[in-house]
Write a structure and sequence with these properties.
The complex is a heterodimer of chains A (about 375) and B (about 140). Chain A has about 375 residues and is mainly alpha-helical. Chain A has a domain at about 40-220 and about 255-290: Up-down Bundle (Cytochrome Bc1 Complex, Chain C), CATH 1.20.810. Chain A contains 14 helices and two strands. Chain A has a two-stranded antiparallel ribbon. The longest helix of chain A is centred in the middle third of the chain and has 33 residues, at about 180-215. Chain B has about 140 residues and is α+β, with helices and mostly antiparallel strands. Chain B folds into two domains: about 1-35; about 45-140, Rieske [2Fe-2S] iron-sulphur domain (Rieske Iron-sulfur Protein), CATH 2.102.10. Helices cover about 20% and strands about 30% of the residues of chain B. A four-stranded antiparallel sheet of chain B has the order 2-3-4-9, with no helix packed on it. In chain B, strands 5-6-7-8 form a four-stranded antiparallel sheet, with no helix packed on it. In chain B, strands 1-11-10 form a three-stranded antiparallel sheet, with no helix packed on it. In chain B, a hairpin with a 2-residue loop joins strand 10 and strand 11. The radius of gyration of chain B is 26 Å and the shape is elongated. Classes of the chains: A mainly alpha (about 375), B alpha+beta (about 140).
Chain lengths: ~375, ~140
């Protein structure tokens, strides 16, 4: 018996890892018609892990002090061996992670996987989406460049449009009347401690819900595309006769992860300027606002929406209403039908929403 | 090639690819974390002779470590590593007794770095010193 097998047997006798592997890997059956879109969850786990590891490494050299932050980021980029690689992986990774997250949510929407009994999966996923946007926003300030300083000023300022509590909330968010060293301190704490912890907990909840409810079957390639769930008692949705997670679907997961890594590393090595504008290379100057300051691509639609409404509060209200509707969609859309082509109104709304989002983003970018 | 042989071959290829990927990811991380070579090199340090009176010691950073320059009562300049050879604490200069004392375990060193008492196994390491034109050059 090889050393590895002896070690495995020694641990298995004490912990029973073979039983766990049987249940969670080879014995975990998935629907036979499962498709590649279901692997985006695993892709996102890898993307989040890359952000955590590169973020921890950046903490070795980054100094969260308004006087030293920009210099420390320059030091990482120009002096530390492979510092540019670690920082670019972190900056590009935040963008590609959000892109993968949007695709994950879109596939869930189109395949109707948010419907009963998976309302809580959708809600926890929506919460994760908001938290990832929050961690991206707070991390944006860290380099203390003109871009990060003024993008944060604009982003935090929009809260002031809220009636009564708005101005107080902005001051609380910034730690002062304007963005300054106090803002960097609290955004840094949120970015490296509070938000990663909350995201980690919500990921665990998301996976727990997935494991308890059971994975949904795609509506494609089946005669009955309606959700079979009846709200009488708890029942795990199993897939008898399905394919095992290991090795079958793990191979699909690995393929998708490799495609993600190829795109991610392609941007890191061949389009390293993607996350930066020229203002990202100038230290923050609180007395000089650069022209045409714009947020990251995933906030461009929100930015443009605020601009086209004559009243900022109205713009915020419309966005808030749209986000609330999306979050509570499983409670509004109660039809059991899941096939997108059998839901023409829904499909038209999704397509229209995507086109509107793209149009607003392009408009925001060009304006 | 039989099925077992093919399986083993693919396993070796997969393990090799995984190992290559681990090295490709691990090497930049190692270099990122490793102390920078040359950042703590033994460059020369110049101190004005007027900064130090007879019987006094001046501590400074040298080559990424702590060092001390002593001007003995006879006017001789001696530069030593300030790191105790016992467990690495920084020695202190006792002006009244004109010797070094390690506050951690009581090791004592003479002005030339030799061990006077206590647990240190070796004398303090010497650093070259030259005096010319009112300047003291260390290193």
């Amino acid at each position: 018996m090889s050393l590895f097998k002896r070690l495995y047997r020694w641990v298995d006798l004490r912990v029973g890892i073979g039983e766990i592997a049987d249940k969670e890997l080879t014995g975990y059956l998935l629907p036979r018609n499962i498709n590649a879109w279901y692997s985006l969850g695993s892709v996102l786990m890898v993307a989040f892990a890359i952000q955590v590891v590169t973020g921890m490494l950046l903490l070795v050299y980054y100094v969260p002090d308004a006087e030293k932050a920009f210099k420390s980021v320059n030091f990482i980029m120009n002096e530390v061996p492979f510092g540019w690689l670690i920082r670019l992986c972190h900056a590009v990774g935040s963008n590609t992670m959000i892109a993968a997250l949007i695709l994950h949510m879109l596939s869930t929407l189109v395949m109707g996987s948010y419907k009963s009994p998976r309302e809580l999966n959708w809600l926890s996923g929506f919460l994760l989406f908001s938290l990832v946007q929050g961690i991206s926003l707070t991390g944006y300030l860290a380099p203390w460049s003109q871009l990060s300083f003024w993008a944060t000023t604009v982003a935090t300022n929009s809260v002031s449009a809220l009636p009564v509590a708005g101005p107080g909330m902005v001051e609380f968010l910034r730690g002062g009347k304007l963005v300054g060293p106090a803002t960097l301190g609290r955004f840094f704490a949120l970015h490296v401690a509070f938000l990663p912890l909350v995201i980690g907990v919500v990921i665990v909840v998301h996976i727990f819900l997935l494991k308890r409810t059971g994975i949904s079957a795609p509506p494609f390639g089946r005669s009955d595309t309606k959700t079979p769930w009846q709200a009488e008692r708890y029942r795990y949705q199993s897939h008898p006769g399905g394919i095992p997670f290991f090795p079958n679907y793990m191979l699909e997961d690995t393929t998708s992860i490799c495609i993600y890594l190829a795109i991610f590393l392609g941007v890191v090595f061949f389009w390293p300027s993607m996350p930066f504008t020229p203002d990202a290379f100038v230290p923050a100057d609180p007395f000089k606002t650069p022209a045409h300051i714009k947020p990251e691509w995933y906030f461009l639609a929100n930015y443009q929406t605020l601009k086209i409404f004559p009243n900022e509060l109205l713009g915020l209200t419309v966005q808030g209403a749209a986000m609330t509707f999306l979050a509570l969609l499983p409670f509004a859309d109660r039809s059991p039908e899941r096939h997108p082509l059998k839901r023409p109104l829904f499909l038209s709304l999704v397509a229209g929403g995507i086109l509107l989002w793209i149009a607003l983003s392009v408009w925001g970018h060009l304006s | 090639m039989d099925s077992d042989g093919r399986r083993k071959f693919l396993g070796v290829c997969l393990a090799g690819t995984a190992a290559a990927a681990a090295v490709a990811a691990g090497y930049p991380v190692f270099r990122f974390l490793a102390p920078r070579s040359g950042a703590t090199g033994l460059q020369k340090l110049v101190i004005s002779a007027s900064d130090l009176q007879e019987g006094e010691a001046k501590f400074f950073e040298y080559g990424g470590s702590s060092a001390v320059l002593v001007k003995t009562k006879g006017g001789e300049m001696i530069a030593l590593s300030a790191i105790c050879t016992h467990l690495g604490c920084i020695v202190q200069w006792v002006k009244e007794q004109q010797h070094f004392l390690c506050p951690c375990h009581g090791g004592q060193f003479a002005t030339d770095g030799t061990v006077l008492g206590g647990p240190p196994p070796r004398p303090l390491a010497k650093i070259p010193v030259t005096v010319s034109g009112g300047n003291i050059t260390i290193g």
